[in-house]
User: What shape does this take?
Amino acid sequence: MATTLQDNVDDSKTTWLSRIGPFVLVFSVGLIAYCNSTNGVFLLDDHPHIIDNPTIRSLEPASKFIFQGGLRKLPTVSLAVNYALGGLDPVGYHYFNVAIHLLAGLCLYELLRLTFSASVWTELVRSNTTLLAMIVACVWIAHPLNTQAVNYIIQRSESMMALSAILFLLLYAKSARTRFAKVYLVLAWCVFCAGLACKEVMVMSLPIALLYDRAFLTKSWHEAMQARWKFWLACAAPLALAGSVIVPAMLGSESAVGLQLQSVSPSQYLRTQPEVILHYFRLALVPWPQVFDYGWPVEERFSVIAVTSGVLLCGITFLIWLYTRKPQLAFWGLAPLLVLFPTTSFVPLQDLAVEHRMYLPLMFVIVAVVLGIISLASRLFHARPVLLASAICAVWFIGLGILTLKRNQVYNSEIVMWQDVVNKTVGAGHKNSLAGRAYSNLGDALGDAEQWDKSIEALKSALQYKQFANKVHANLARAFVATGKIELAKVHCQKALEVEPNSARLRQQAGLIHTMQGNFEEAEKSFRSALEVDSADTVIIVNLAQCLLQLKKVEEAESLFRHAIDLDARYAEPRRRLVESLMRKSDWKSAATEAIAYTKYLPNDPRANLQLGTILAARKEFPQAIEQLEIAASFDPPPPEANLLLGNVWRSQKKSTEAIRRYEVELKHFPKNADALNAMAELVAKDNPRLSVSYFQRVIDLTPGYWQARYNIASLHAMLGSKEAAREQLLVVLKINPEFVPATELLKSLE
Assistant: This one.
């Protein structure tokens, strides 16, 4: 009896492990494949939809997510949640995208495990359902063609829609195999609605589900419709609502999709898509080279149009014929074509080819490939075909995983990404109809990295294509401002404004140029005109406030800083500037209140603790000041002057050893900090005057006008008996600051 019980326990353990094991494997493969993806940056459409999107700045009111914007409500809500949790730190956004991808992989495994157990399959497939489902899920989750949907943050709409589509099919399939059919169909309907709120392509889940039903669940179309006709009727309601959003977009010209799109006509789009579709399927098998922004040109060559269209039509005809005989095989070829249909038909989109559109279709393609491999293996290796098929898929899978890890790295830098686009299109001799965009974004990214010469070079290349002129000229203006070529900056800013006169950001840029020229009155006019266009742009508000400070309009400036904080509580700049303004007025109480709020809302910004510590030190609350400055100094790297201020506080407390240690840390991180060198020199002057002189000399080498250091050197030379050296330094001090009485008195004493 004991033995039997033990056997039963072992069997239950084996069953549990066999059920949970594949999920763990698929999840682990996904984690490994995207382990280096969370360092990615914001790219292209991430900027308008995330960085410059006021809608996601707050979760309130919730009604705005329902009644404002287009159909893609859930991705917008997810972005707002990401912003609430981590502001504009891309890491949290990437974690979310990876999580969606992992969930999609797990749902895919369960869907395929259920699908391969259908009676329509051969014994070879049905006896290896778990293995085949696991192989497909692992290959799909590690495939580099998915990297754009996962790493390009804003394309979470694609992955969220795909997750919904996979889950929809899974629930629909389960409804036919359980007595709780109504429950599963209600859940499937809810998932379908959620998918529509992610991306419009979700509508294609309905014909795909019908094909799936006929292929795996029922024996005729009549049976499929009769069994679940109420469900299909229920799905019509959200489709009517979706149509009210989709149809106006198709007929309009204001967005990146529509029959009136100016950049490409319906006929041009239609004749180019067969070539694009074949390219997608080629990438599914051999994902190299991958390009983030193809700028795919309209196909004009009749021979290419004829051949690609012919191949595609023959393939579709064959699949339809095959579906009438073996629907369980043809389904995997027809389904990806149905998913692609909305984006590869006659309705033009701004970009003729983008890789993220293959995220969901890739799943079906991989199933077809794996089924083909196992069929071939059964013919070549009769004894153990599954072993041969598994070995082939393993090699394929490993190669795909390596490519995914490498591709993830490209998304970790805007410079690397846009240079990759340029290299693989224009650099490889391929036509890129949006090359101006690639060069413009490359120049922008190089500017962000302060590689101004390279930025200007890339932007000048962008000018040759006469595309996105407003952005190119605006970026050139920024680059010339940074390199001190203000007149050139002014010229390009004006050219950008000629193209887009009502741009708030361009008007702001004109204000910044006026500011650099010291023309604060004109700068104020430019900033105010920018706010007339966009009154909620916090960057413009802060720049106007800074300008007003220069014009001594302190109260209005501080009011604007507070207004910017109200608009975006997580934007650091207005908080920091407001505290600085209050500190300049010695309004320590108000400054402390604002600094405490700064540390509360932005706990990961060491400048908040630095400001609060400075205020507390000014109020002579030294223990609390040290606590805040220690927090600031603990960041890696610490903000400039955190350790310097700590040293100053310890010095005021007569703790010279601790002060010197802090000055040394400051100089380790910021070796050109003249104030830290000067403070260090003053502390060691008594015990080691010659060493002190060397420190003071380093200060002068860094900042020749630092007259306090020169005076200290003169005092030390006088003490050491080097009167001529002391006199020489004092004459320079008085030349810089003629009113400095101690220097005059010391000079007289040396005569």
